[in-house]
Predict the structure of Nicotianamine synthase.
Amino acid sequence: MVCEKNPLVRKIRELYEQIASLSSLKPSEDVNAFFTQLVVTCIPPSRIDVTKLCKDVQDMRSKLIRLCGEAEGHLENHFSAILASYENPLHHLDVFPYYSNYLKLSQLEFDILTKHCPSVPNKVAFVGSGPLPLTSIVLASFHLKSTIFDNYDIDPLANSKAIQLVSSDLDLSGRMSFHTTDIINVTHALKEYDVVFLAALVGMDKDEKVRVIDHLAKYMSPGAVLMLRSAHGARTFLYPVVDPCDLRRFDVLSIFHPTDEVINSVVIARKSPSDKQSTGQQPLGPMKLPNKFFDIEMFNPLLNHVNLMDELDIEDQIS
C-alpha cells in the first residue's frame, strides 16, 4: 500500500494541512501560494495509483479535493466579478490567470470531439458551468460557432454572474442559456443534446460522480456523446477520477492524459445505441476493459497538435 513513506504523499500531506488550517480559501497571498505549490507538486508525471492508497491517505485526498473545489469556486467568483466590471467582459478574459489553460483544454476537447463526431453538434449541455463558464465561452466563440449551449449549475448566484459576462455579446447571449437546477432534476430535456460536458467538480466523490453519470445515461439519447474531465497520477489529489467502469450504458471511446499544465484528463464516451432501458429490459452492466487500458501511457498532445489523434483510441485498440 502507498502511504506516508512515499515522499510525494508526504509533501501533499504537508500542503493539505497548511491549506486546511487557513481561515478562508478566498483568493489571498497565502491561498495562492499554497495552491500553486500543490499544483506544482502534482503536475509531474507519476505512477501513483489512488486505488492502492491506505485509508488515511484516501480520506485526506477526498478532503483535499473538496478544498480544491471550494478554492476554485472562490477564484472563479472573484474573477467573474472583476470581468463584469468591464463594458465588454469577453474582451478581457485573459485577466483570469488560467485562461490559457482553458484555451488549450477546450482545443483538446474540440479535437477529440471532432474525431469521434464529425458533424457539428446542434445543441450542447454543460453541467456545472459555474460563475465563469470559460469552457462554454471558448467553445462557442472559437470552435462551435453555430451550436446552442445550455449551461446548468445548481447555484443561482453563479448563473447570475455568468449571464453578466455574456449579456453584452449579441451572438453568445443568443446561443447561450443558463439554468439553475440540480442536473438530477433534468430528465427528458437531456434527450435534446448531441453532446453533454460534465465538469470535473460535479460529483466530488465516487458515489456522487457515478450517481450523476447514471442519471445522464438514463435520459441522454442513444448515440449522444458524454465528455468528462478526470485526472491521472498525482493529479488525482486535485480532481476526482472517472474510471471507464463507472460509465455504465456508455461505450468509452478514448481517454487522454495531458502531461503539461493542463491538469484534467479527458474521457469521451457515447451513449450505447443498444441501451434497452426504455423497453423495460435490464440496463447494461458496468463496462469492463482489459487491464492494459487502465494504465494508459501519458503524453503531451498539445506539443504536437497535428498528431493529436495518433494515440489512445480505445475503440481502435479493442477492435
In short: Residues 99-318 form a domain with the Rossmann fold fold (CATH 3.40.50.150). The first strand starts at residue 123 and ends at 127.
